[in-house]
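dumping this here before i forget
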Amino acid sequence: MDVVDTEETRDSDATSSFEDQILSGLKFTQDATLQFMSAWFDGVAKLVTKVAEAPKPTLPAVTKPSEMVEFTRQMVSAQQKYVGDLLARKDPISFLSSLGGAGASLIKKPAEVAAANVRLVVGMGAALRETAKCALGVKTTAPLSPSAGDKRFTDRAFAENPFFFLLEQQYLLGCQLVSELLDAAQLEEAQDAKARFAAQLVLDALSPTNTLLGNPAALKEAFDTGGKSLVRGAKNLLSDLRHHRGWPSQVDSSGFVMGINMAATPGAVVYRNELIELIQYQAQTEQVYAVPMLFCPPWINKYYIMDLAPGKSLIEWAVQHGHTCFVISYRNPDATMAELSMEDYLRQGLLDAVRVVREITGASEVNTVSLCLGGTLSAIGLAYNASMGDESIKSATLLNTNTDFSVPGVLGVFTDEATIDGMEKQMAKDGYLEADTMAHVFDTLRANDLIFQYVSNNWLLGHQPPAFDLLVWNQDSTRMPAKMHSEYLRSCYLNNDFARGEFEMGGHKLDPHQVKVDTYVVSAINDHIVPWFSGYKTAQIFGGLNRFVLSTAGHIAGVVNPPSPKAKYWTNDERPADPEEWRRAAQLRESTWWEDWTEWIGQRAGAKVGAPERLGSRDYPLLEAAPGSYVRDRS
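structure:
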């Protein structure tokens, strides 16, 4: 059925789902899986019976190179058609059209294109020769190898079975060709970043391991279980289509309950306004430091990443080390909060929480511990307080925090004018950005780890996703108010106002260099959301004393970093302009940064006093037990 391109349909296209525009590379995987489902419903009984009755040998070797060449040719043709169809779609966010721009550029560079294709032909010839050796049982040397950390091709069939050996090589050669062509296109920086992101997402989706016939582990599982794994996989797929709009489930959350084995540190809600609940935690030591501690989480997820689970909770750790701890728990926004601004989040969130903590404890100063977006807001709050002569925040710990957005990493791909404009149009309809939208954007930053490994595990192998507390928290995301989110993207990512001293709050232009409080800044070396070299700039932007540490792991595991044999971090008391220079001179410490921070914050927490006998105060009675009500509102 043809669709008439009227003004109405064009408006509809322009405001179509942000994630549909950015993540259209996933269409291939979902289409292929739907075809797989259709085959099941056409003859599942026959197939299961045939598989169950069949012997269970190792996967058969392909002995005819001509058949492998034809199969490769057909796959390349199908992939080219898919990419062509993909690029033909309307793309207001301009990710996929960037690939079209690369194609247009390459038309003017026939020599470079020819050279890349010659290398592809040479590589394919080498792959075929090695495949023939593999078929004869002779030791082979693969022309290309997957990148370090790529787990898709670890099954020994890719080294020992000629069919899978050639399949892997064909795919890797195709990836190499795309990379070389993008190099040759020499696009402008922003367009090049978008083209590479879109190309990588498409290539990840096209991996043979995302299909049943291209996944030897899935085929073996089907043989070993008499086809039952395929039945389980089809059920998992149907469930994901029904409950997750076709996205594969990342985690089995059935065994996790907030207040029991997540967000379980004893405490109570002592204050609530229209935006936040403030939770105070029960002391676990006879004496506590005089200066209380306020945890400021990001509002894009729930606060309990800072109180994940017993033994994995930074809040629990701080309480056990003698700090009187509070945490902000943000309300999950709805349409009534569409006009809340960043200033509202500062005043009704951070600054209001600091006020209440001081009034409950009687302390004149508060130490803050902030993560990601919460750190960005805290940095703005520090600069605002400096402009007002307010010294209520004694020190600030900033975890995986951007304050200078000049090198935002891959997230910069999503934050140009066209992308923000498209997002604003979507938010205008509902008054907020759906929680899934941003969650899926973050997933695409590590698509093989956070999307396609679950296609293989859940749909092809028929396994259940793991039960893992970090992933339970990760999928419990929140909506974003339209005005606030637009202001955040434009002022921070697009204009970098705060680092340039152009960010305005309450009629004041804020100067981060006027902030004189001590800061402790943590970055994680594998962080894909706040690259560590961007987080390093947070250690340079303020005027007070600073300590910078670099943790192992990624954006979340680098923070949820309790003592363990795997926990490590780097320190260097110097602060050169170049982050790589800092890293080369840094010393690796064989422990968690939590221990280093405990000593640092203890020196800034005042004298020891008797622990409070009760939570809250006469003016702030207990409202309910932690984790409170706002955190339980799911998107």
